[in-house]
Design brief:
By secondary structure, the protein is an alpha+beta fold. The protein has one domain. Helix content is about 15%, strand content about 45%. About 10% of the residues have low confidence.
Length: about 90
């Protein structure tokens, strides 16, 4: 499980230059920030959508930002990393 999260973090950092807006500035009210870390002059946040229970990684630094949905492998298939909200 940890290797998937680390892989997603590396992937999110790699694609960080694809967007120019900050997630935190205009984040929907249904999102909650679970953790925040600084990595190489960038800020990385783990975010959960309260409505869907799905998790996201946000990476923002100087002149770039990215939001990536977290996935896990289940029975050989990649599925979104979400809580059961039943």
């Amino acid at each position: 499980m940890k290797k998937y999260l680390i892989g997603l973090l590396v992937l999110a950092t790699f694609f960080a230059g694809c967007s120019s807006s900050s997630v935190g500035a205009n984040m929907p009210s249904s999102f909650e920030i679970l953790s925040r870390d600084s990595v190489h002059n960038s800020e990385v946040e783990k975010i959960r959508d309260k409505e869907t229970g799905c998790y996201y990684l946000s990476s923002s630094g100087s002149y770039k930002a990215a939001l990536t949905q977290m996935f896990i492998e289940k029975d050989g298939v990649s599925v979104p990393y979400c809580d059961d909200l039943k």
